[in-house]
Automatic annotation (TrEMBL):
InterPro entries: SET_dom, SET_dom_sf, SET_SmydA-8, TPR-like_helical_dom_sf. Pfam families: SET. This is SET domain-containing protein. SUPFAM superfamilies: SET domain. One of its GO terms (molecular function) is S-adenosylmethionine-dependent methyltransferase activity.
């Protein structure tokens, strides 16, 4: 990007390479995607005051932006005590430990250590838990959820799995979702039972597949509301 701006756009004499890298860094970490009412993307914008808000995976505020008015609105979504830091979510709350923390590290260059990230079970939601390969009845969660390459341990038999083993399971099912067309209702009906063979029922990939399926029921040909059984 910097080379394109300096050489192709003719900014080489006006801005140094360091200055452009600094601007690109600001845009990458603070810019907000704007859409109009259609919705169609109309670009990215930086809101200076909004950029001061920190991230938390269990934030106390939510925000909405309007591409039409080019304004952003922040509202409290829980009771906030005097002096308490205002926080928002940079990414979807639906992601589990591995994807959520790695995406934050990759895109915003910090390690999230919020209370949810510090909870191996993610406050008993088990949104990242996989089935134990030893006892088959228990579920495996990280022993230290702040370690990217730490061990995972079954809550029932205490058998350990490496993070690489867990990542391989996640990647396998994530690829299945990624390679499924959004309107392929029958494929989602097949995938969900397969996911449940190795993932916790509240694993974020299971919930994501169920959300896609729920969106299709009632709107897809052959599955319209008057055609669905009870």
């Amino acid at each position: 990007v910097v080379e394109f701006l300096r050489n192709t756009c003719g900014l080489k004499e006006e801005f140094s390479e360091e200055e452009l890298f600094h601007c690109v860094g600001i845009l990458r970490t603070n810019a907000f995607h704007l859409e109009n009412s259609i919705p169609t993307s109309i670009g990215r914008a930086v809101f200076p005051i909004f950029s001061l808000l920190s991230h938390s995976c269990i934030c106390n505020c939510r925000y909405s932006a309007s591409g039409t008015t080019q304004k952003i609105t922040v509202r409290a979504q829980k009771a906030i005590k005097k002096g308490e830091e205002l926080t928002i979510q940079y990414i979807s709350f639906m992601y589990g430990h591995l994807k959520r923390r790695s995406d934050i590290k990759k895109c915003w260059f910090f390690n999230c250590i919020c209370s949810r990230c510090q909870s191996p079970s993610e406050f008993n939601s088990y949104m990242s838990a996989v089935k134990c390969i030893n006892c088959l009845d228990g579920y495996v969660i990280p022993t230290n959820s702040l370690e990217y390459e730490g061990h995972w341990c079954c809550i029932s038999c205490k058998k350990e799995m490496s993070s690489n083993q867990v990542i391989a399971i996640h990647d396998k099912f994530e690829d299945e979702l990624f390679n499924t067309f959004e309107n392929d209702l029958k494929r989602y009906e097949i995938l969900i039972p397969q996911f449940l063979e190795e993932l916790h029922p509240r694993h974020y990939l299971v919930l994501t597949a169920k959300k896609y399926l729920a969106d299709l029921y009632g709107t897809s040909q052959g599955y319209l509301l008057n055609e669905l059984s009870e």
